[in-house]
Amino acid sequence: MEKIVSLCKRRGFIFQSSEIYGGLNGVWDYGPLGTELKNNLKQYWWQVMVRERDDVVGLDGAILTHPAVLKASGHADTFTDPMVDCRTCKARLRADQLAEKNGVKQCPNCGGKDLTEARPFNLMFQTPMGASADPASIAYLRPETAQSIFVQFKNVLDVSRKKLPFGIAQIGKAFRNEINPRNFTFRSREFEQMELEYFCRPEQGMDLLAYWLKERIKFYEEIGISRKRLHILDVPEKERAFYSRGTFDIEYEFPFGRQELEGVAYRTDYDLQQHIKASGKSLDYFDEETKERFVPHVVEPSAGVDRTVLALICDAYDEDSAPDEKGKMETRIVMRFHPRMAPIKCAIFPLLRNKAALVAKAREVQALLRPHMNVFYDEGGAIGRRYRRQDEIGTPFGVTVDFETLGEKGEELRDTVTLRDRDSMKQERVAIKDLPQLIPSKIR
Ligand code: GAP
Prior knowledge:
Elements: H1 2-10, E1 14-16, E2 28-30, H2 32-51, E3 56-58, E4 64-65, H3 67-72, H4 75-78, E5 80-85, E6 92-94, E7 99-101, E8 104-106, E9 119-122, E10 126-128, E11 138-141, H5 146-151, H6 153-160, E12 166-175, E13 190-200, H7 205-222, E14 230-234, E15 246-254, E16 257-268, H8 270-279, E17 285-287, E18 292-294, E19 297-304, H9 305-316, E20 317-323, E21 329-335, E22 346-350, H10 356-369, E23 375-377, H11 383-393, E24 397-401, E25 416-421, E26 427-431, H12 435-443
Parallel strand pairs: 3-12, 22-23, 22-24
Antiparallel strand pairs: 1-2, 4-11, 5-6, 5-9, 7-8, 10-11, 12-13, 13-19, 14-15, 15-16, 16-19, 17-18, 20-21, 24-25, 25-26
The structure holds glycyl-adenosine-5'-phosphate.
């Protein structure tokens, strides 16, 4: 994990937020490469979960949330973690994550055993809304994106004219005042979720739970996460939310242990019923064919963007060996991102920076590829070093413009370049004009 955290900082994937002021605990900023990686993940999720389906539409709900919404959903009263204080060092700790020695719970900071009784700590962030300091004018930063989907269910149903089963998807920020943010970005106080609420008839719930679990495992495989590091936990009834008839956690084997990436839950009609009761508005569905009116049930695949980015980074990290400039083998750090997820798809190198014709041609290749993918031009240092820099950030393809490209080694090679594959390190000679089709065909 140390190597991964250090690479993330060194190469600009993830930085501690407000670092120059000592950092803001549990809050992270994504650097240039992290932003690309995160965007690729979110775009691919949106592509397969919304755009490629007739039965799912999108929503982009507000972060600031009316307290009544979160009262009805149960968050205001029960969205808590058990907290204890260490009387010795004054640390605030999650009661369910305490270390134990000889059956006695201890403070992980100072080893102290003088701990308070556990009490519930609500994880929601509040903020005053408007100019008055009236306690009645507080709003919450949403703790999940799901609630705006339930609250807008009727509006979306009316405008989209969808028939059951259909879903509403959303990607966006969520906030939880975690007692102990930890494991890099894994448990943060500000994070993003990718959630789908898939509404259905009650009798379809269990089958759709199995369907969405399969779809979501397929998704992780398609973004390049190895199946052997993914695990499915069938959450036992006593650990599920009381309204859920079935929940699966999709877990990933992080270097710090097996932890949840996503929950796929059959939530019955609990959320819509709660909002019906609290708002007094109807959130039901009229089935034209059977002439029945009822409150739909819902199956919810709910994934964390930041946790998936972290899993992508952990899964991609590899070390092998490659020859240096003098042919001596050295350790190579290589991020084996699936090309679909890689922040930069193709790097373009003129063999030498001081040969104007090579530089001009390489710039032409950059301009040719730019409309098709995220490319990066690099002319600094020996070519081997430049390859290594791209391997370390997971760029799957490298194009080198050399003297053959200029026609100096025979006319038949003019306007051809070498195309290098990150994983095999093999190079093939290809015509520049073929690159805009060839590289995307290897990315999809
Ligand atoms: N709407 C259901 C819901 O929010 P959840 O299991 O509390 O369920 C869903 O959260 C996902 O959101 C988790 O599987 C995880 O990927 C992500 N998530 C939750 N809390 C997080 C945190 N503190 N930091 C980063 N990601 C988090």
